[in-house]
Amino acid sequence: MKRYTYLPPAYLGVAFSFPIPMVYAQITGTVPKEAWLLFVANILWTIAYDTIYAMVDRKDDLKIGIKSTAILFGDLDRVIIGIIQLLTVFAFYLFGQQTDMGGLYYLAVIIIIWLFAYQQLLIISRNEEKCFKAFLHNNWVGMTLFVGIITDFLIK
Q1: What tens digit of pLDDT does each residue of 17-67 get?
Q2: Which of 32, 39, 48, 84 is the most buried (most CB within 10 A)?
Q3: CA 137/CA 122 separation, integer angstroms
Q4: Which residues contact 82 (CB under 8 A, 6 or more apart)?
């Protein structure tokens, strides 16, 4: 994919996110608005974290002539990742509004904001090891969202 387009994270995001509307359709017989909000949020999040991962390989990718979002975004990589992370948080917020989530879910979203801020601190120098650490740090984002959804569901 990296030989043909600068946007492999977008394709990865769609591939990782498509189970969301599929599961909604299978379980409920429909794909409601909240499924599409979560679908979009997951695509955005994937683009952000995969671009952070691409920052690790940027020098090698340039040497061998393949493409990535890190190369496409250039010196604006951190800013664009930050914007995408903010859009992800906004989509998580809208998902919570659409599904009448409670305080524990929104606490998780606030924690995700802090986790994204920490990732921004890690990638500020563009140091490959720190960028890789920021990429791996996204496990915490996923776990935080999962725990927020589950705990909110369990206390209702």
Answers
A1: 999 999 999 999 999 999 999 999 999 999 999 999 999 999 998 899 998
A2: 48
A3: 10
A4: 116, 120
Pull the structure tokens for residue 152: 């909110």
Q: What is the torsion angle, in degrees rounded to the nearest 10, for the CA atoms of residue 73, residue 76, residue 79 and residue 82?
A: 20
Q: Model confidence over 58-87: pLDDT tens digits?
A: 999 889 999 888 989 999 999 999 999 999
- Whether the CB-CB separation of 70 and 55 falls below 8 Å is answered with yes
Q: List the beta strands (DSSP E) in 12-156.
A: none
Contacts of 44 (CB under 8 A, 6+ apart): 13, 84, 85, 87, 88, 91
Residues 9/45, Cβ–Cβ less than 8 Å: no
Residue 126 one-letter amino acid = R
What distances in angstroms separate CA 11 from CA 3, 6, 79, 130, one per listed residue?
Answer: 14, 10, 21, 25
> Which tokens in the block code for residue 52?
């952070």
pTM of the entire predicted model: 0.93
pLDDT for the residue numbered 5: 77
Fold held by 8-155: Four Helix Bundle (Hemerythrin (Met), subunit A) (1.20.120)
Residue 6 CA to residue 63 CA, distance in Å, equals: 15
